[in-house]
Task: inverse folding
């Protein structure tokens, strides 16, 4: 991963040198690795990438992917081919809170499109964009397994279900006030808002 | 009230904890199996039970287990498929979230039968918080000696781990899941060899759905023959159904296989009828990939018999007039629903989720989405209906994994039963999303 990855993201040797897991994150990574036979630790890649994404700003930079490759003793391209395949890994910087609105059948039947439009209007961004303050990114997602509690959106580890406009207001307000990065690996998930 | 075997305890406070789960009879199947049965006897009970894979394919579980190769000194693995992603399906999430120990107990008992010293539960990445719940339950099970070395003082030792995915529907296909578990892209493998011979890291592996593994618990407890008495014919036992769409009471229901579709939709015990007093228009009975049926055919077979919630009855009439039980993702749509628009959400889904290995699926799913988009923006012609039919017919059966079929079947069924809706839009050059304002109303009021 020497020069360029996925379009515009350049590899920066200085940034790579600074990319190191915190002690806590490293402990988590070691636990994950211990779940597999020693010669099969590549298997830890998907869960370790989740830890890395949460640890390094909510996305996987070329430096982050290179670092993960060095930990799992695999080639950087093996990390990239996985990171670019799965939808949960961001290959470019995102807002602190990524709102993923499910749009598949049952959610559509229950008004997912209206929820997307409402959020677009409220945050003054379109799907795929990030607010100027870097707080929110809006995405649409395919079925998140919340069909009986549609419409829904996911933000980090939290499922927000049976959405109404009022609920969306409350969710955005809460996250904005907290102002912190929300990740899939968060322990303080809020499924009650 | 029908018999419940899987989620009968779901409302018991703190049933997610080991203490409460155990106090309600939990882990009895591990005791019975490890102390009084040989591994093969457990497999025999599962065979006798007639249990069929609850993930969607409906393959007999006991038979799948008996295919497992057992070469000397090669590890064998049990992998639980918790990559629940079929649109309309959310039962496994419910089971793992409410009663995580039911899955872990099933994992231990099943692993004992298969001789697996290690098992993995592969949970879709979006269910990260569910994975936390399952991991906490696993930690409790280790602390109490249900997992680890010499369980209950026997020779049987077992480790169970959770792995989270990265967001990919295709990883619900068992060989794609194994690739993903090995830290790779979720590209399905060419079969044979089947996982039973060469699965995880090339070792013999059984991959079973969450609900399938949880069902092993009551089967061992009550005996396969007793279990087989529940249900109708070859559809034995109970099944979790995820009910969603325009119904009064969406949610997860455990049914005895054999109740009527009509009962399931209209009785207060289950879906409680169609919302706002509207009429039922169509049903997707088993997750997005199974053929959609118009209300009349969903409730009554072409022969005029009441349609039952069983593998056989739902597929009665083949795809001409029937469908499949699939994963039990039951989506009911009211009279105002646009079948074309709903199909568009399905086709967009399959296009998004195609792994891209096989050209018919990679290209075909995209073409179908684009053509359906033409119907929505008013540029479709009548000939586009034939084009859609032509494309779907060229995907089915021509791909490595069943995602091709899963993408083709809903298109074929929508045209088969609702062709007039496509033609109408093509002729009028106008798509009217009639249910839009009702939904808007719901979002404001609720």
Result:
């Amino acid at each position: 991963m020497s020069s360029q990855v996925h379009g515009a993201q350049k590899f920066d040797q200085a940034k790579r040198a600074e990319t190191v897991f915190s002690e806590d994150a490293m402990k988590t990574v070691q636990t994950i690795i211990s779940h597999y036979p020693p010669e099969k630790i590549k298997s830890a890649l998907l869960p370790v990438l989740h830890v890395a994404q949460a640890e390094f700003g909510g996305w996987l930079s070329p430096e982050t992917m290179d670092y993960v490759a060095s930990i799992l003793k695999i080639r950087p391209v093996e990390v990239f081919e996985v990171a670019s395949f799965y939808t949960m890994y961001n290959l470019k910087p995102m807002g602190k809170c990524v709102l993923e609105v499910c749009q598949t059948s049952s959610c559509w039947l229950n008004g997912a499109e209206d929820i997307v439009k409402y959020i677009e209007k409220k945050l003054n961004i379109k799907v795929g964009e990030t607010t100027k303050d870097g707080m929110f990114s809006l995405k649409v997602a395919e079925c998140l397994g919340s069909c009986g509690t549609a419409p829904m959106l996911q933000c980090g580890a939290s499922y927000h279900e049976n959405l109404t406009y009022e609920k969306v207001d409350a969710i955005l307000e809460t996250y904005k006030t907290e102002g912190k990065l929300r990740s899939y690996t968060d322990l303080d998930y809020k499924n009650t808002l | 009230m029908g018999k419940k075997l899987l989620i009968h305890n779901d409302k018991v406070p703190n049933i997610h904890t080991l203490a409460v789960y155990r106090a309600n009879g939990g882990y009895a199947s591990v005791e019975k199996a490890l102390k009084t049965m040989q591994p093969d006897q457990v497999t025999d009970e599962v065979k006798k039970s007639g249990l069929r894979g609850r993930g969607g394919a409906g393959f007999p579980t006991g038979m799948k287990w008996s295919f497992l190769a057992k070469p000397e000194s090669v590890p064998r693995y049990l992998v639980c498929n918790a990559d629940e992603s079929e649109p309309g399906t959310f039962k496994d999430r419910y089971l793992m979230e409410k009663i995580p120990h039911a899955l872990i107990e099933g994992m231990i008992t099943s692993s004992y039968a298969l001789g697996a010293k290690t098992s993995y539960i592969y949970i879709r990445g979006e269910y990260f918080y569910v994975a936390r719940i399952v991991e906490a339950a696993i930690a409790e099970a280790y602390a109490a000696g249900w997992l680890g070395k010499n369980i209950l003082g026997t020779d049987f030792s077992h480790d169970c781990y959770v792995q989270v995915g990265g967001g990919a529907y295709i990883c619900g296909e068992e060989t794609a899941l194994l690739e993903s578990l090995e830290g790779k892209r979720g590209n399905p493998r060419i079969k044979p060899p089947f996982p039973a011979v060469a699965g995880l890291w090339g070792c013999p592996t059984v991959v079973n759905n969450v609900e399938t593994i949880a069902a092993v618990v009551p089967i061992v407890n009550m005996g396969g023959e007793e279990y087989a008495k529940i249900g109708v014919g070859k559809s034995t036992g109970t099944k979790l159904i995820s009910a969603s769409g325009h119904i009064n009471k969406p949610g997860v229901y455990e049914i005895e296989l054999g109740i009527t579709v009509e009962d399931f939709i209209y009785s207060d015990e289950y879906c409680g009828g169609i919302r706002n007093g509207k009429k039922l228009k169509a049903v997707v009975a088993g997750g997005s990939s199974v053929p959609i049926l118009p209300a009349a055919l969903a409730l009554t077979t072409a022969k005029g018999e009441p349609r039952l919630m069983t593998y056989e009855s739902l597929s009665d009439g083949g795809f001409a007039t029937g469908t499949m039980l699939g994963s039990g993702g039951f989506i009911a749509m009211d009279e105002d629903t646009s079948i074309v628009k709903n199909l568009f959400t399905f086709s967009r889904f399959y296009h998004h989720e195609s792994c891209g290995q096989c050209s018919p699926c990679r290209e075909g799913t995209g073409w179908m989405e684009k053509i359906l988009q033409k119907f929505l923006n008013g540029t479709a012609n009548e000939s586009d209906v034939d084009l859609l039919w032509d494309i779907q017919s060229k995907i089915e059966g021509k791909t490595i994994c069943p995602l091709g079929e899963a993408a083709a079947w809903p298109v074929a069924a929508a045209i088969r039963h609702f062709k007039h809706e496509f033609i109408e839009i093509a002729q009028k050059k106008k798509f009217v999303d009639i249910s839009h304002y009702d939904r808007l109303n719901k979002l404001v009021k609720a």
Notes: Confidence is low (pLDDT under 50) at residues 1-5 of chain A.
